[in-house]
Give the backbone structure.
Amino acid sequence: MKRDRQGSWRPLARLLCMVWMSEPALADPSGGSMKIAIIHEDQRLTATLTDTPAARHFAELLPLALTLTDYAATEKVADLPATLPTQGSPKGMDPSVGDLTYYAPWGNLAIFYRDFGYANGLISLGRIEGGLGFLERPGPIAVRFERLPTE
């Protein structure tokens, strides 16, 4: 590390602060998997988020109440209150049943309850553990996303 002309470390410290503040912190400081709950009435599903900028930013939005609606008899979708970062993400993905995703071109959340082919602009946020329960019901569903405490 080099000092500036006055022998100070300030330029380096300023740069490190800028980098540290540029991405949301992980919900689990131990580096473990970040878990969230998807709640509908008295039913709860658990999902594990990926360790990506988009998923970390999504976690910063929680708790979040959304109404999920059916799209193409394949996925439940809802508009998000903020745009998630996409830099460094793959150009698209081939989602599977249970995938929690962000569709960047429309800025919405998408949870797949049927298999689907590759889609440009689709970014993985995580995956639902176990069955999909209430997400397989037709029609709109009011849900709440919450972070789960770390173990």
